[in-house]
Amino acid sequence: MGDSSREEICAQLRQALELRAKYCEKLPPKRSSFPKSGNLELKWQDGLLQVREKGSEQSLFEVPSLDEYYDDMNTLFQIRSSGPVSSYAYQRLRLLQTKFELYTMVFGDQEAQDAMETGHRDFYNVRKVDTHIHHSAAMNAKHLLRFMKKKLKRFSSDVVDVKDGKERTLKTVFDDMGIGWTDLCIDRLQVWADKSCLHRFDRFNNKYSPMGQNELRTIFLKTDNAMGGRYLAELTTELISDLEESKYQHAEWRLSIYGRKMSEWESLSKWVLGRGGKGCGKALLSPNIRWMIQIPRLFSLYKSTGQLDNFGQMLENIFTPLFEATLFPEKHAVVAEFLQHISGFDTVDDESKSEKPVDRTFSSKSRPPQLWDIGDNPSYKYYSYFIQTNLRLLNMLRHQLGLNTFDYRPHAGEAGEVHHLDTAFLLADGINHGLNLRKSMGLQYLFYLAQIGLAMSPCSNNQLFLAYEKSPFPVYFSRGLNVSLSTDDPLMFHQTKEPLMEEYSIAKQLWHFTSVDLCEMARNSVLQSGFDEETKATWFGSKDYRHENKTTSTNVPNLRIAYRKRVYQEELHLLEASADDTDDVGVMCNLLLLSPTRRLQQSDFAGFGLDSEPKIRPFAAALPGEDQDLSTLMDASIQQESLQEEMGEALDWSVRTSHGPQSSKISKIVSHEILAIDQKNRKGSFDGISHKGAIPVITRDYSEHSMVMNEKTKEEFLLRLNHEFAAQRASQQGQQMLSLGVAVLIGCLSGALTTWLVRR
């Protein structure tokens, strides 16, 4: 694209955000007259399940086509990979990071004080959600080991498998392996991820099988086995009990739907609800958990084993039961009830697998799912389009019927190619991982502007793809991306009973996060989660929790929330070409030059209404000895008493900072002199301090509402100030001479006394 102006770059960024809005815009309002379920029918067309009125060929809901999606993907790729956009995004992201560093230096102590004054609230008793955790690995290794030992020791006669028509007990299974309950230990389980798993996702997947035995994985960690998944259900009840005991920790556990057959939904629903002989006979539900559905991208495996004929069949097995349970809940009561406890959908697999060149060139759009009968796996973007679009159609239908809807939060950017994040930007409500955003400044800035949630798992990444100290998490956080911490697979990566707290603890120690930082991350995790709006409003203490912050509920000071919102809205203003880059200079100069009280009272951070729009104000730096115009930061009117107090404090702070401990008398005289000048001019506003040598110089703006020191006034002011410095220095010299004389006198007397004593 060559060199582009800032306006052109901002126009391209706005275009990218508009593309995302096509796929992730809010659901349309409910229609006043929507057809009854009995008058509707479902029809698969080009991989999408359309909802129509009977006898009509027109779909009730419109979504972008596959061709349009691929064209938008190409446009997004051109935007985010262009040189000018990348350079501009890098500059903005670095500036956001610098602003946060400056903000924490200036307001860190005030934040800590605000947090201490919150009362009983602290990091341990604020709500936090583990938004990315796989249910089959939700327990730690010690928990699984203890459970296996208990079952083998006390319930070895349980029938756990049927092989060749013969029932096998738990004792038989372990006897065939030559293992007794006393032989079990953590190291023998071999479930911890180690160095051998680095960049080897295949080896990591093997860690799901205790002792490397798929048979043990089926018995203890599967929902569909000869026992109806009873052992895993019992493990789940123990995990739920732990979460409820902690009260403030929540989780969104992922269960798998593979799409091999339609009966999977019925079987999984019965397991969760404890129906039909599945599970442990009780519902696995709790206020502390929500369920998510993960869809492994394994079509090529199912095709090679003859379980599926084409990709369209896989989509039908996944979505047809959901639409039918939504339209006809009386016919699919168990699935319909289970859907009420699902918060979102995810797609999972090894992203590091390289895709074929045909997928990179976008030519796969010419093959609809019903014709995808080849053995190759569809590309990431192909999978994502059909899963997200069918999910969106389902959400539109459920929204019209007054039912809960679902998020789409896939794994994206953990490894592999960056264009997976292009797909996620267009389609996802949030993502898991996002490591590869560090490789694309354009995409990272777009994720910031769209405030797409990132659930990151540094402990998991440390063992699989990226060393902990190289994780971009602290950089993302300081820049203002919507990030939170999650555990991924506690069975492989964590050692304690509370893996989420372990994740936060490690991050705090290695990256020196404050309590306020941790509470902000916890707040982000709740916002990213799929818990219903009423629950979030209760946790946050406000129905308007997205715009109103209750520190008594979140333990995040209003100062931090106001800062985040202010800088975010400044970026939006820049995107609209309604502000100038010099605003950033103004913000930083204001923080550096104003006194502590002034910063709190006049900066845009303190008392900033969360519902109001920020006013971006240009700021010109004042050079020593020059009469430059400085735009006022807030209202020009300042009360007389406040002006005197704040000027005195500001100058006293400035002198002490620049010249070491000095008499506060100088500051008071300076304040008195400026106040006298202000009384002559009657109107003015204090904007900043610059220094000329050791002399503070107050700069003001000549205007109807403000004044500036003219040359004569400045000379009088500096002359009196120099006289005061001279008098102060003379006084100090006199005191030094007197002290020296006293010391000499004491020395002489001491010597004479010593001589007299010796002679005696």
From TrEMBL:
<keyword id="KW-0378">Hydrolase</keyword>
<dbReference type="GO" id="GO:0003876">
    <property type="term" value="F:AMP deaminase activity"/>
</dbReference>
<dbReference type="Pfam" id="PF19326">
    <property type="entry name" value="AMP_deaminase"/>
</dbReference>
<keyword id="KW-1133">Transmembrane helix</keyword>
<protein>
    <recommendedName>
        <fullName>AMP deaminase</fullName>
        <ecNumber>3.5.4.6</ecNumber>
    </recommendedName>
</protein>
<keyword id="KW-0479">Metal-binding</keyword>
<keyword id="KW-0472">Membrane</keyword>
<dbReference type="GO" id="GO:0032264">
    <property type="term" value="P:IMP salvage"/>
</dbReference>
<dbReference type="InterPro" id="IPR006329">
    <property type="entry name" value="AMPD"/>
</dbReference>
<dbReference type="GO" id="GO:0046872">
    <property type="term" value="F:metal ion binding"/>
</dbReference>
<keyword id="KW-0812">Transmembrane</keyword>
<dbReference type="InterPro" id="IPR032466">
    <property type="entry name" value="Metal_Hydrolase"/>
</dbReference>
<feature type="transmembrane region" description="Helical">
    <location>
        <begin position="737"/>
        <end position="758"/>
    </location>
</feature>
<dbReference type="InterPro" id="IPR006650">
    <property type="entry name" value="A/AMP_deam_AS"/>
</dbReference>
<keyword id="KW-0862">Zinc</keyword>
<comment type="similarity">
    <text>Belongs to the metallo-dependent hydrolases superfamily. Adenosine and AMP deaminases family.</text>
</comment>
<comment type="pathway">
    <text>Purine metabolism; IMP biosynthesis via salvage pathway; IMP from AMP: step 1/1.</text>
</comment>
<dbReference type="GO" id="GO:0046033">
    <property type="term" value="P:AMP metabolic process"/>
</dbReference>
<dbReference type="GO" id="GO:0005829">
    <property type="term" value="C:cytosol"/>
</dbReference>
